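Would you mind giving me a polypeptide sequence along with per-residue structure tokens?
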Amino acid sequence: MDIDSRIKELLDRLSPITLEEMSSIRLMNRTDKKFVTNKEKLAELLALAEGQYYAQFNAGSRIASYRTTYWDTEEHDYYMQHHNGRAPRQKVRVRTYMDSGVTFLEVKTKNNHGRTKKKRVEVPGQGQIAGEAEFLMERVRRCPDEIHETVQNNFHRITLVNYAKTERLTIDFDVRFHNYETGKDVDTGDLVIVELKRDGNVYSPVLEILRQLRIKPSGFSKYCIGSVLTNRALKHNLFKPKLTKIAHLIGKPLS
């Protein structure tokens, strides 16, 4: 059995939770933590999660599809804010939930305490933000014509919820990047990005699982890594160790 079939088989063993049931979960004092691994380790994680986690079930599947396009200035200000470790920092993106076709323009702001807030407004589709001048001016002080599409990603996502409903775990894989400026495409192979969102510092079953699998916390920005992989003209000194780690995890260099 190939690894993708194995992941699907293990995922189907988890009890389902619907979007409606998910909507009742409010993480009022949310903290986020990211981990980077590969599909072999993901299969082990899902096996250990059985009996402790629900899997989100929507549109007949436990695996959802996403498309996200990031927007930036000519000088790549939002990319550079992250590269240089600036806080607060922001990102502007348009995300489409492929299974429903719903698209949102989103502004993410990370403050100097490490907490992230997201504001969003529904838009007609990818690339269609011209009518959201007021939304953008209020949040990033820029008009739509001051930013442009830079990097797009497509990926699959699994969402798990612990039985106590005090945390959500998003698991992203099959991540592919396209750069609008260079025309370059990159496939990240077996890379898996895990993000734990929980209510404060309550007990987390998955942290025990991750420790058991020797998967350590590791920051990861799809926008920044996708930008570096598809446009090496960008300053990227601080991301070099992360690129080396990714190459090790998936067993091949990314280019």
Remarks:
- The chain has a mean pLDDT of 92.
- Helices lie at 3-12, 19-22, 39-49, 77-83, 133-140, 205-212, 222-230, 240-250.
